[in-house]
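Input:
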Amino acid sequence: MSQFEQETAVRPLPAKGSPNEILGRFSTDLTDAWNIAGNPNGGYALASTLRAVASLAPDHPDPVSVTTHYLRPSQAGQPAEIEVEVVRHGRRTSTLRSMMSQEGKSRITSLITMTDLGQWPPDRYLDIPPMLLPDPESCVDRSLLPQGVELPILSRVDVRLDPATIEPGASDQALIAGWIRFADGTEPSVMSLPLFADAFPPSPLSLLGRVGWIPTVELTVHIRAHPKPGWIRACFRARDIGGGMLVEDGLLWDSSDALVAQSRQLALFVTG
Amino acid sequence: MSQFEQETAVRPLPAKGSPNEILGRFSTDLTDAWNIAGNPNGGYALASTLRAVASLAPDHPDPVSVTTHYLRPSQAGQPAEIEVEVVRHGRRTSTLRSMMSQEGKSRITSLITMTDLGQWPPDRYLDIPPMLLPDPESCVDRSLLPQGVELPILSRVDVRLDPATIEPGASDQALIAGWIRFADGTEPSVMSLPLFADAFPPSPLSLLGRVGWIPTVELTVHIRAHPKPGWIRACFRARDIGGGMLVEDGLLWDSSDALVAQSRQLALFVTG
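Output:
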């Protein structure tokens, strides 16, 4: 079993739902192996929710729209409880909402539509050119980038950054690009794409130089295809920064150059 | 009182929440004045939810992140019930989730973060150039565009479309742009922006010619500023169509050229 599967596993708890809804309860353990500074990475903390949700939508195994609001930081080493409600089970999609709590406090709430990506016709129109990047070997290992925080998560994911996008303050764009894969050789899956969409340094780095903590308020990931084995190539760009927040868009391609996910997040961003 | 306020008003119902959460219940009436074909427009159906949510977050009057999943079509002329749960009330933001039901069936579920946009510093970095459009007078009134469906909503909003973006099948982009305002002269507000982000014809029109119903699965709107009085200028572009779905991005500017909202929706799109 991969590190990702093992460290995001959920166990069902006795249900306590009302009769007109399908409500599941699960427990999970968040390890500190995916921490950024002192707290679990948001994409990692979300992954166990995705597993709990998927277990209640057996004929719709693939998340296609995943919105998560981060209410309070998650805590590594503390048990977590996840409540999942099936709000609609349809023929083509299922919609579920969830709440992950620790120590009785809500931490992460999600609204998720699941589908079976394989049931849809494979035609595709894309008005998004694939991004060109230097090979992973010519990119900078994220662990070598000075960021002023401990990054235990780099024991779990291997992140290589395009050197052109990490020169602090050297660009007029808030753009970061690079490659990501699991450190233990596990191939990417639809379940890993929300994590991969939240595991890069913040994109304002190249525009503004050193940036502080940019906590995610809300992250939405649209998963468009099953990724082929190999590296995931991604870029993140904040085109709208101000008013104490930023909107950052992400694009993720697989090794066959298929666009496998799009992401957008709203994050708090207070300078000065 | 404006048509928009009047026709999205909510009335509190007795609460039935558990003690550890703040749960409000509301009733509302959806009129058929905002219909597209036989059902209320999704942005309109969402507006009463926004009012219910705002009434439970009095110190955070402005929606900043609004995600809505459309579970089943709403019905005009039927009473609706909206349940709202405050999942976190913080100093700078409040997060709420809601469920709108009719005839005992869930129709719309939302996850919303509210703030007070006025509390944040006004600095802004934008890497999104304002879009140039012909004046509203030189654009095409949406009511004159043959679309094959009745559009009662055009009694409530005035939509003018850039002629260059509505020639069916004449473009290699799925792009539609134009102007929108309330028909009764009401000025735009943050509460109206999600509606305005969902009131244009589908963007694949210019790429593919005639398109059928493209039901929204999920719509997320980020509201970035209070709009100034006057027309709202907007463009919508689907850059990722296929696999039975499309992802369409929207940008909305006010009359002072400020980017007031960004939107993204996932919609079902099955051709042939």
